[in-house]
Amino acid sequence: MFSHKLNINFIMTILQTKFLNLLNDFGYDIFNLKMIRETNTFSDKEISQVLRTLTKSGILIKLEQGKYIKNGFHNEFVIGSFLAPDGGIAYWSALNFHGLTEQFPNVIHIQTANRRGTSIINNLRYRFIKINKRKLTGYTLQGYGNHAFKITNVEKTIVDCFDLPHHAGWYHETIKAFANAKINARKLTKYCKDINNVSVIKRLGYLSELIKKPDMTFFVNYAQTCLKNEYSLFEIGGNNTGTYNKRWKLILNLPEQEILEIAKS
Hints:
By secondary structure, the chain is α+β, with helices and mostly antiparallel strands. It is built from 11 helices and 12 strands. The strands form 4 sheets. A 4-stranded mixed beta sheet has the order 4-5-7-6. Strands 1-3-2 form a 3-stranded antiparallel beta sheet. Strands 10-12-11 form a 3-stranded mixed beta sheet, with helices on one face. α9 (about 200-210) packs across α10. It is elongated.
């Protein structure tokens, strides 16, 4: 947890004033060492000295090695995306951003191929979900300049949430999100190919037909080509028994009527 208390006895030096002026000039509310060095304004020794004193006084907050924010900067999506530049904001956080859930998760979900675990910044938990590099697709850039961040688009968010539903409020949220989302069938197909999870493809194909989602013929035809002989549970981690759906090779361990009610909720 990071402290935000400013040292009221802190006296600004010329070096510190020059450094903070540089941050203001470049619009750097969040930055790393590389960004500062590329300005060719300070020596490494000066950078080390000024960062040490400004973090000690509370004017800057150290996120992790070599990465900092100004005290008072609270854009959680920008911070999360900055900490995992190979990936972006995803799962439940992306559902909320796209207006596909009424729930407001108190954790920022970030997918990346380079790290896992959690960090607490500004009293908010950031969860890094490590996935295969090939799954790092489907991002849209939001914001501008130093306040830009990457977040999964609607179709990729849906596929991700069915791939790892425990990071998206489980099936009640993912089913409802799919039912309410405006989906481009070709984009959905592309991201299903990237994720390469046949069970996810089957669930989405089945749901497309069950709720009569419009304009999904292209995806449904693709999903049918992915079927194999083995059956998958509709709900991961649920009961191993239920109605067998031969068309989609699914064991419906959630009753169809319940699935429909969730989709309409």
